[in-house]
Amino acid sequence: MKVLVTGGSGFIGTNLRNLLAQSNRAVQNYDFVEGKDIRNAPQISDFSKDVDAIVHLAALVRVAECELKPRETLETNLIGTQNVLEAARMNDINNLVFASSAAIYGVQDKFPIPEDAKLNPCSIYAYSKIAAEELIDLYRKSYGLTATCLRIFNVFGQGQDSKLPYAAAIPIFIERALKGQDLVIYGRGKQTRDFIYVKDVAEAIALALDKKPNQTLNLASGKDISVLDIAETIKKLANSKSEIKFEQPRAGDIQNSCADITKLKLALGFSPKYGLEDGLKETIKWFEKKN
Q1: Helix, strand or coil for residue 201?
Q2: What is the model's pTM?
Q3: Residues with Cβ < 8 Å from 169, sequence gap 6 or more?
Q4: Residues 176, 182: contact at Cβ < 8 Å?
Q5: Where are the alpha helices (DSSP H) in 123-275?
Q6: CATH code assigned at 122
Q7: Rounded distance, CA 67 to CA 125, Å?
């Protein structure tokens, strides 16, 4: 199988390409850092020739950044997805895996969150992912496209950048814990998240390529943990003397998030291999080596 990966130089993309290469799949990377842009319809169509499947990861993904760039967000996340869909249609590619997001659920009052929960988007980023999912569903119905949408929850692991604006909590906590710096939590740290290790995410995407479930699935661990517990666990695993400090909550932060992964297990025969501490240990080792 020859697979085109959009956004293949990013955090998830790099880990996915490594896994696919190890399983003897031919991988073609399509990433902005290499001068390839999903907003360029003729270019993505040309690069999609002679591939068997597409994994579409490329997107603007940082919620706060997207709020500052609404037009660019829609051009990239929605029109870019439509360009990928057209490339698949025109080149007779009938196997697409799309990286959607748990952000589309927004604030919920029932946990764990099933795929049929009422969507409650709170950002332009979340709206762009909902619109992309709906467009994919249209291509399923109108053109018979086989496409799997994976609503990915909070991913962490090696290759995640703690230096970028709006970086995720875990890489920031690890970087600061290794340096003995304060770990800053916004609010009291009682907010919960469903974290999944990036190697598990890559494994699930690879399974979706093989099994082609043609469904929309949550991709998560199915377990929640508070941000305060995450900070304390990282301190312990890193043997850090960092202090945990609390600041005012950030506007728009979701209080709780945890996925129902029943459909994921049934459709892919998949359960995460890495427990939270195992994944954190691997991630801390990577940051130690990087530094």
Answers
A1: helix
A2: 0.96
A3: 193, 227, 230
A4: yes
A5: 124-143, 169-178, 198-211, 227-237, 262-268
A6: 3.40.50.720
A7: 7
**How many domains would you assign to the chain?**
1
Q: How far apart are CA 6 and CA 24, in angstroms?
A: 19
- Is the preceding peptide bond at 112 cis, omega within 30 degrees of 0? yes
169 falls within a domain? no
Question: pLDDT for 84-126, tens place per residue?
Answer: 999 999 999 999 999 999 999 999 999 999 999 999 999 999 9
Where in the sequence is the domain holding 211, given as residue range(s)? 2-156+196-221+257-273
- Coarse DSSP helix, strand, coil percentages of the chain, rounded to the nearest 5 percent: 45, 15, 40
Quick one: which of 290, 288, 272 has its CA closest to 202? 272
Using one digit for the tens of pLDDT, what is the confidence trace for 189-226? Answer: 999 999 999 999 999 999 999 999 999 999 999 999 99
Provide the annotated active-site residues: 125
